[in-house]
Give the backbone structure.
Amino acid sequence: MNQLRALLGFVLKSFGPLVAFLVVNRFFGLLAAIAASMGVAVVEVVVLLARRKSPTRLFVMTTALTLGFGAVDLWMQRSVLFRFEAVITNVLTGVWFGATLFGEKSMILEFYEKTRKPEDPMPPETPAYLRILTTIARWASARSSDR
């Protein structure tokens, strides 16, 4: 039972707006589902602020996309961006990852630091390697969006 509770907690924490969208869309329709996913995203932000935790850059990006696309769709009273959301999201994700190259840490380095054990030493070449990997991924993303 604890494993099921842990799994459900992980799913809701990781995919809350998506789960809300799918469930509400099934029973109440598209506009209600969009509003529900936006509501869950806002609740996630409030919970983070209440716990005084800083959000990850990926969380900031996905929440901004959820609220931005949702606001446009609700304002237009239909899902106008649905056909373009995948392309726009891919381009914005590539730009977001690329922009992290100019900061202290690249996004991939942030992921790496969160997944490794604290007692495991980070090889000194790892940050440079992950910065190069991010650059290559950004370049590949730009090339694929040109087609």
Notes: The chain has a mean pLDDT of 82. The chain has six helices and no strands.
